[in-house]
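Task: complex structure prediction.
Instruction: return structure tokens for all chains below.
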Amino acid sequence: IFQQGLTFLAMMGVIFYQNGRLAGLSVIVIPLAVFTMVRMGKRLRALAASGQERMGDMASTLQETLSGIRMVKAYGREEAEAERFQQSNRSFLSTTMKAIQVSSLGSSHMEVIGVVGVAAIIWYGGFLVINGSMTPGAFFSFLTAMFMAYSPIRRLSGSNNSIQQALAAAERVFGVLDLRTEQDAERGQLELPRIAQSVTFDDVTFHYESQAVPALTDINLTIRAGEMVALVGSSGSGKTTLVNLIPRFYEPTAGRILIDGVDIQSYTLRSLRSQIGMVSQDVVLFDDSIRNNIAFGREGTTDEDINRAVRLAYAHDFVERLPQGYQTVVGEKGVKLSGGERQRLAIARAILRDPPLLILDEATSALDTESERVVQLALVNLMKNRTTVVIAHRLTTIQRADRIMVLAQGSIVEVGTHDELLRRGGQYQRLHAMQFQDVADG
Ligand SMILES: Nc1ncnc2c1ncn2[C@@H]1O[C@H](COP(=O)(O)OP(=O)(O)OP(=O)(O)O)[C@@H](O)[C@H]1O
Ligand SMILES: [Mg+2]
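Output:
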């Protein structure tokens, strides 16, 4: 800017030296243009700042939604989240449009002044030359100097480019949003009523495209309605993959999954997922109030409903202790809460939804004994009267299960109750000895 200002001053010197009156004319034109520029620049800067803010809003909404995409899908919230994103999108768009309006208005303004000004200068200069009071050479060097004085100003308005870049970026984001893979994959037409009999895996194999070996091989299992099944197995044995097939986050590579005897592909995604409650390994909370985080997926929930769910989840103590209670905003990803508190909110969310089939991926991260105990109590309330598949890491959960299935490298290697499996002295017994040494001793 300093260098540009210097060029400008030097050129002004030259044109004044060439011809005072002509320079006077260009001096009227240039300040006008500069004035417009400065005013426009201020507006533009303000708009750019608020545009940046809107863009930030938009990015964090997007980031939240995408990182919690499982939760969003499991709770059938795609449309509501899309709407939330649309909103921040729209406000970003309107700020950007305003910025563009200002800048294009500004530059056309500039051009008009410039063209009229230059025309006037050429006309007057030509008149002087014809008149003989100025040599053609002097006139041309004057014109050159004047254009050189102008060009730094024109360069100053180059901020336009960044807006162009932002627009290009936005286009890419919209491109991603317009992908509709899941809707395209939606083939099912049947409405799934409340799960009445069973969930069955019939020779299911699943292979992640990026992996050399299948994550699951020939899985056969039936979970009866009302039963609580625990999945255990070392890390990477395929537990999470197995449960993710039930709400159709992935489709089996081979085999079928049946609910009440019908392939789950025949059901609409919405009705299938509305039957399933998920509490996952890492709890997903949105940067919103505690109330909205619990009501997630259910419009028109009453305060009594929320209160009841929160009580059953053993969360009312800590929620009511918070200065703003249910209106407390939990911060991005729930950072303002402890691990146990987050889990209890997720449990309250699932209780409120009252799903017939519950999928629980127990957190592996250790909680201290007290919060562990409270979370366990909350889970007992949640699992009551439901078909439950729980990926269990805690001995208390496993002992409560009707059946335990042991997974190893994508296959079910043992099935039975805790006592049966311990007596058998196989994989489970070894896993148990390894995982629960401390717990059993203490
Ligand atoms: N999204 C994915 N893409 C590719 N491979 C995956 C993906 N998720 C899991 N895998 C692979 O599939 C296998 C089974 O993973 P899975 O998450 O089901 O294990 P897990 O039993 O739940 O383990 P943990 O107890 O650590 O949660 C692993 O080898 C893992 O690397
Ligand atoms: Mg897992």
